[in-house]
Amino acid sequence: MLCEPFPMTQKKTEAWSSKIGVIMAVAGSAVGLGNFLRFPGLVADRETGGGAFLIAYFISLLVVGLPICWVEWTLGRFGGTQGYNSSPGIFHAIIRKPWGKYIGLLGFIIPVGVYFYYVVIESWCLGYAWHSFTGGLDLGKDPTTYARFFSAFTGQAVDGSILGFPGPFLFFVGVFILNFVIIYRGLSKGIEFICNWGMPLLIVIALALLVRVMTLGTPDPTKPELSVWNGLGYMWNPHDIAKGLSNPAVWLKAASQIFFTLSVGFGVIITYASYLKKKDDVVLSGLTATAANEFCEVGLGGLITVPAAFAFLGASAVAGGTFALGFNVLPQVFAGMPYGHLFGGLFFTLLFIAAITSSLSMLQPGIAFLEEGLGLDRRGSVALLGLVTAVGCTLVVWFSEGLKALATVDFWIGDIGIFLQGTILIYVFNLVFGTERGWTEAHHGADLRIPRVFKFVIRWVSPAFLTAIFVMFVLKNVAGWNLSFTKAEFLPTEPILDLVGGPGHPASGVARLTVFFLVLFVGFTALLIRRAGQRWKAR
Amino acid sequence: MTTAGLLFMLISVGAVTGLFVWCLIKVLRGKKDPDHLAHVEPIETKDLEKR
Predict the structure, then answer these.
(1) How many CB pairs under 8 A join A and B?
(2) Is there a contact between B9 and A232 if contact means CB atoms under 8 Å apart?
(3) CB-based contact A198:A353 (threshold 8 Å)
(4) What does pTM read for this prediction?
(5) Which has the closest alpha carbon to A198: A376, A389, A349, A68?
(6) Mean pLDDT by 10 residues, chain A (539 residues)
(7) Between chains, do B37 and A189 touch, taking CB under 8 Å as contact?
């Protein structure tokens, strides 16, 4: 045994109640807003979408998504058998060096940090569902009305303006509390219960919406070119595949989407898998959770939003980004169709379910660490995590002008952090845990054999591919590379200009404050991990 | 929609749907080992020891 197991006299043993329960929970974590809003927008992109994107997307799924998913499930279950459920604890058990536990720091920082803003977006979904069902989103045919509503609802005009518009603030507070009430109920009664009901409900709603969209035909007979069939074509026609595949931006976007959509490198799967027992399967479970996510993303998300938006509003409506598509364009689409209140309400309910099953998963790694690292009971860990996330969320909610605080946390934690953690995971698995040992460990109790080619992929291809993508991501988004090998240029990007300023772009006080807060958050977490290490060592 | 677009859509959607259904069937028909995931509620260790 590598490490002294957790002394059971001090700890409540939590576990999943069924195999399908853990699969639903992991799938619920992975299926989020990106499945229904971001993915369709990426496929439909004229520059970097189309067939080339799909090919790069599925290759990324095979060489990065699925292998890292299996790695995370395996390391998580191993950590659980050693008595650890949190990322710092699991890395402590694997690495067995004083610095090992700090490698797991991101497994706490990322989910909790992303929660700061994700729960805010989740409250928008619930608010929009409410307004759709009650007719409050029937704002006529002027597109600017919908944009103004979204801006007011999210307080984008002035910092702190959400307090002058009590509806959104109440939705936020309600959703924030709801998350903690569910998480307080524990793994089985809380997260698993919600996901076991939420995921099937989400799929049923999505199928109902799919049927509605596919039967829309040509909504306006005076504009026969605007039809669902042409909308599907707009999204799925492959364009120039060879040109696309030679474009690094296509690969970067495809790999990023796979990474974000599967929640790999997030700190969630490793925590969820730690509640399994040694003989529980991780291979089929990991594959099933991945397949569920892909079904929701490609099979449902890929057929609903863009074709519907195209059929009502044309190509120009589709090219506006995730928030614009979800909160400006689609309300307009639903307002234009028969029973639009109902279908709009259902769509935003679907987004809310997708969001809450994800946000719950962001809290569990934090709870697990506070319980096993500081010895807190469930009440204490929920209270402390509630306090930390309340401070972070207040920052995001208050500094809402242009959604600057939200975008800053998203970039530094949600983008950079996830890539970094994923890269760390695959290297720790290969170099510290050992590929052979990991391969054997993965197959303990497995209901399925992983094809042997994946051993080579995990050992060589995934680290190389992920490192290349991560370097490219940093060069593009931090150093401002134009992704050209022949005429490379480096121009400062917005997140960097926000911090240091530049010609025509003064530094943003909000961005600086947000980054300062994040640095404090990382420092505070490192101190907690140090304290946890002393506790683990004393044992 | 072009024929190539239709093919891309059918292959992509068909592949992920087929994989999901296959996995679900495999999970639901999988082995029923009573030792697997036996707990329903969080269990206090002292209770565990009693059992």
Answers:
(1) 128
(2) yes
(3) yes
(4) 0.91
(5) A349
(6) 44 80 94 92 86 94 95 96 95 94 95 96 96 91 90 90 82 96 95 96 96 92 92 90 90 90 88 94 96 96 92 84 88 91 96 96 96 94 97 95 94 89 93 96 94 96 93 90 86 91 91 97 97 90
(7) no
